[in-house]
């Protein structure tokens, strides 16, 4: 697992839900502030990350304001 794989995962995940984020903006995208994902979609995102990358992500990590931008969340996941 690397940064590029996670960026691609998040880009695809958001696109499947009708959220368009330019490729160069994915790290700065604040999914919490935008409110583009409901609680079911956040849970789905956690489960897919765990399944696809074998990394456990807690809901509190996902909703932690310091991880609100995808680039920070990617760094948190990579640090595991």
UniProtKB/TrEMBL annotation:
Residues 25-67 form the Carrier domain. Signal peptide: none annotated. InterPro entries: ACP-like_sf, PP-bd_ACP. This is Carrier domain-containing protein. It comes from Pseudoalteromonas luteoviolacea DSM 6061.
């Amino acid at each position: 697992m690397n940064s590029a794989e996670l960026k691609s995962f998040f880009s695809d995940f958001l696109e499947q839900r009708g959220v368009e984020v330019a490729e160069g903006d994915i790290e700065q995208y604040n999914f919490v502030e935008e409110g583009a994902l409901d609680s079911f979609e956040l849970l789905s995102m956690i489960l897919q990350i765990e399944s696809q990358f074998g990394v456990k992500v807690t809901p509190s990590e996902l909703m932690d304001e310091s991880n609100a931008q995808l680039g920070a969340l990617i760094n948190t996941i990579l640090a595991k």
